[in-house]
Amino acid sequence: MNPELQLLISQEEIAQTVDGLARAINQDYRDQPLILVGILKGAFVFLADLMRQLQVPVQRVELIRLSSYGTRTRSSGTVQVLLDLPPQLLRHQPVLLVEDIVDTGLSTAKALQMLQQQQPASLRLCALLDKPARRQVPVHIDYLGCTVPDQFIVGYGIDWKEQYRHLPAIYTVQQLEADA
User: Fold this and answer.
1) Is 179 among the residues known to form the active site?
2) What integer pLDDT is reported at residue 74 of this predicted model?
3) Among 59, 68, 81, 164, who pairs with 33 as Cys (CB 3.0-4.6 Å)?
């Protein structure tokens, strides 16, 4: 059974949001070289669009991969590190963690903890979406795009069972199969 998708954030709204986030980051970092760290898989589309809008020097782009959902619609509560960074890569560098959605906060908090252990000069978080109704762990978001309702979301890199990442807008999902 295919789930019913309902448009939540259009392509145009996403583009405006990404542009606004990039302007704020450009203002705060000005001429500082910046390292971007994206969380796979969900943030890769947002990371690419954001990076193209930045005018500050992007020194490097790195990716980490975490998982707490698997094929479920709810977090398992356990965050697995599937891809990490080499040690000391971020030492004394300004770092911006780029996240698609802060939901429970578990994965984002884990990512921030991992990056902080590398002793960056600064560490900030940019999230396209925030779903505060599901928060289990407090997370400070320095650059936030949109707050979304407590519904399952897909599109613009965000998936359900590896599907729907390709959608150019963000949708809520209705009639999902129950988690096994």
Assistant:
1) no
2) 54
3) 59
